[in-house]
Amino acid sequence: MAIRTGRFYINTNDPEFAQFGSGSGLRVYRRTIEFSLPQSGGVAAQAAIGHIDIGHDSAPRLEVRTENVTSKSFDVIISTWLDTRVYGAAVVWIAHTLE
Predict the structure, then answer these.
(1) What totals of helices (H) and strands (E) does the chain contain, helices first?
(2) What is the C-alpha separation between 14 and 91, in angstroms, rounded?
(3) Using one digit for the tens of pLDDT, what is the confidence trace for 32-74?
(4) Domain at 7-93: CATH architecture
């Protein structure tokens, strides 16, 4: 089995994530993670919250998931909704072969 891991931090200083500090409606952020794994047997990827900076005046609502997994990349999707304010988040990820 081959494994790749990583971590990234995002906050409202990034124009694509700035909407998360607004606390209004559905907000979605997408980041493509690039790596290299052998193609045989398939690849799986998971992501999780490693850190969160969130407003105290509403319920903490945050979803992190992966999509479009290949042997070369996958997308991490972070979303929140309603009145939740997220000012920053760290995401940890792991991708591995399925053999």
Answers:
(1) 0, 6
(2) 15
(3) 999 988 877 799 999 999 999 999 998 999 999 999 999 899 9
(4) Sandwich (2.60)
